[in-house]
Amino acid sequence: MSAPPIADIQHWSTRDIAAGQRLAFYSDVISSALDPMVVARAVTDPFDGEITATRLGPLILVHGVSTAHDCVRGAEHVALSSSRQFHLIVNRRSGWNLRHRDWVHVGCGDAVLLDSRLGHYLNFAQAFDNVHLVLPEAWLGQWLPDPAAFVGKPMPNDAAWARALTSFIAQLVPENLQHGALPTQLIVDHVGALLALCANQLSGEMMQPVLRQRQLRDLVQDAIVQRCTEQTLGAVDVALAVGISVRTLHRTLAACGQTFGGSLMAARVALATRMLESPLMARLTISEIGRRAGFADPSHFVRVFRRHSGTTPARLRRGRI
Fold first, then answer.
1. Minimal CA–CA distance to 185: which of 56, 318, 17, 13?
2. How does pLDDT run across 110-150, given as a tens digit for each residue?
3. Which residue numbers delimit the HTH araC/xylS-type domain (predicted)?
4. How far is CA 117 from the centre of its chain?
5. SS in 3 state form for the chain?
6. What is the spatial distance between Cα 122 and Cα 71, in angstroms, rounded to a whole number?
7. What domains can you pick out in the chain, each with its CATH number?
8. In tens digits, what is the pLDDT along the chain, a chain of 321 residues?
9. pLDDT, tens digit, for every residue of 62-104?
């Protein structure tokens, strides 16, 4: 069964707009297609942007490509909205920063849900390629019992159902659907079902986030300690050993106030300290101990050791003799 072509695709571009009028023009376009807001700052000059939009059953599908800029939706813009709706956004080209409830970083290919009742600040520090779905409150309520619980929380595309959701949404540009073979309602229901599955997964994850993050952090930390003597050890190697993505590794360490580089240096310094304090290693030179602890450069070893321990390897060794 083939579906009728998607009709009424609207297109706007700053290409034929004078450079000094482009921000105002683009602000009017996104306010009309999405919700009232304003482009507060363009990072590049001249500013360029293109928007295509169409209806997808009860949803509105918007595809935006633009140079770097910031968008603001303040209280005065929220007051202009007559009804509540939600916005599901996937940036296919770059990561970006969002202040909605809190400041968060949304990675390239991740999804995030916004609530039109709340203001926001969107910081696109790089050129972007956004697929943006406008979801009516009543429609979303059929799929998510409490949509507000997921507002402003990035859905990382390396999580199982979030990966399926973001991969599907990333293909939903109006041009791709214009002569599609699937009925519109089937596409809309697929979006809702994937959102529900993703939300269910995130709900389970949010029940014990601290415990889960600490358990995963401990696995990462153990792998770092076990392999810190490898001079070329990188985050990719540890992530593969633990069975997670590099992004999950960095996110897990950050949630526990750590970085990969800092954890690796701390593990190497701890190992070097044990060797410096061991009578069995007394005949080894400082440089050799640094090398065995994973430091390729002796001077780098001394600098890192001093930063972590407050003393040099030589002084520590003399103090133990």
1. 56
2. 999 999 999 898 999 899 999 999 999 999 998 888 888 88
3. 214-319
4. 23
5. CCCCCCCCCEEEECCCCCHHHHHHHHHHHHHHHCCCCEEEEECCCCCCEEEEEEEECCEEEEEEEECCEEEEECHHHHCCCCCCEEEEEEECCCCEEEECCCEEEECCCCEEEEECCCCEEEEECCCEEEEEEEEEHHHHHCCCCCHHHHECCCECCCCHHHHHHHHHHHCCCHHHHCCCCCCHHHHHHHHHHHHHHHHHHHHHHHHCHHHHHHHHHHHHHHHHHHHCCCCCCCHHHHHHHHCCCHHHHHHHHHHCCCCHHHHHHHHHHHHHHHHHHCHHHCCCCHHHHHHHCCCCCHHHHHHHHHHHHCCCHHHHHHHHC
6. 5
7. 10-207 (2.60.120.10), 211-320 (1.10.10.60)
8. 344 445 588 999 999 899 889 989 999 998 888 888 988 888 777 889 999 999 999 999 999 999 999 999 988 899 988 889 999 999 999 999 998 878 888 999 999 999 999 989 899 989 999 999 999 999 999 888 888 888 998 898 887 788 999 999 999 988 888 766 678 888 999 999 999 888 877 776 554 555 677 888 999 999 999 999 999 999 999 999 999 988 889 888 877 778 898 899 999 999 999 999 998 999 999 999 999 999 999 999 999 999 888 889 998 888 764
9. 999 999 999 999 888 999 888 899 999 999 999 999 988 788 8
Contacts of 150 (CB under 8 A, 6+ apart): 113, 144, 199, 202
CA 247/CA 232 separation, integer angstroms: 19
Instruction: Give the pair of three-digit tokens for residue 99.
Output: 């202040």
Pairing of strands 49-56, 10-13: antiparallel
Paired tokens of 106: 């949304």
Question: Would you state the torsion angle of the CA atoms of residues 21, 27, 32, 34, taken in this order, to the nearest 10 degrees?
Answer: 150
AA letter at 44: T
pTM score, whole prediction:
0.62
